[in-house]
Design a protein that fits this description.
Length: 276
């Protein structure tokens, strides 16, 4: 085999050095798609969910780091991390467009073979929801068969959410925050609070002196905006493919997804816009 057409200096021998495939563990990654039927569209279904889980893994990595920045009162690096999560959400939104090329007839050819497996059981998605503040202890139940995942999710459930960390930061910056908000059981979801709203209002009314907090607030709004658009696109895709059938995991399907759209992660940041 002649190498004459290769770019000058390109490496071709990897007996003793690391290749692209080695670095990315491509053999493991590409061998992970294992359809259980012979239907043409099942690989699409599997790959879309694999890709989504990889993006969620990165989102968790960025959210964890951003929360640590807030705890350290070092906000500037967190802005890049939160922007990256919003960009990840945009990629997740686009995956629904690819999945939508699968028709109802295509999906029904292998849907029954999925058993009770469902995206509702994604522990990484639950991790993100808990971390953003939508904490529901009962949603741990689908994971009780896996001790490691249960421990991980329980830990996230019992820690301050990303928004809780933002509110604690407001308190450390000498904004008045009610003790019922900052001293509560962290497994209980945050609910709208007038002192939190007043603090954010003060930030928005004096951006010159609170610029980093103002930028944090907008990054959080971007994050929720992207998350809600992801949820909506999920709903439309499900409705397009299975209509109002129940989900494979037992939820009411479209009706459950529509109800989830009503939840607000950062309520005061949305309400303050009416007051300004």
């Amino acid at each position: 085999m002649s190498d004459k057409d290769l770019p000058k200096g390109v490496y071709t021998k990897f007996d003793e050095s690391m290749s692209y495939a080695d670095y990315l563990s491509l053999s493991t990654l590409l061998d992970a798609q294992n359809p259980i039927t012979q239907e043409h569209d099942e690989p699409l279904f599997i790959m879309i969910h694999h890709i989504s889980e990889l993006w969620m893994k990165l989102a968790i990595h960025e959210l964890d780091a951003a929360a640590q920045c807030l705890r350290d009162d070092n906000l500037r690096p967190s802005f890049k991390m939160l922007s990256r999560v919003s960009a990840i959400q945009s990629q997740l939104i686009e995956t629904w467009g690819v999945l939508s090329t699968m028709t109802p007839a295509d999906y029904l050819k292998f849907r029954d073979n999925l058993g009770q497996s469902s995206g509702f059981q994604s522990h990484q998605y639950r991790h993100i929801e808990f971390f953003l503040g939508n904490k529901k202890p009962s949603f741990l139940s689908p994971h009780k068969h896996n001790e490691e995942i249960m421990l991980r999710l329980t830990n996230v459930l019992n820690k301050p959410s990303l928004y809780d960390e933002s509110i604690l930061l407001l308190q450390r910056r000498n904004f008045h925050i009610d003790h019922e908000i900052t001293d509560r059981d962290w497994s209980i979801p945050h609910k709208h609070n007038e002192s939190v709203q007043a603090a954010w209002l003060a930030v928005y009314r004096d951006t010159d002196n609170n610029w980093d907090l103002y930028e944090l607030a907008e990054k959080l709004v971007d994050l929720e905006d992207s998350f809600q658009r992801w949820r909506f696109r999920h709903l439309i895709t499900v409705q397009r493919i299975i209509g109002h059938k129940r989900g494979t995991g037992g939820t009411s399907g479209v009706d459950y997804l529509a109800k989830a759209l009503e939840y607000r992660f950062f309520p005061e940041l949305w309400d303050v816009r009416t007051i300004l």
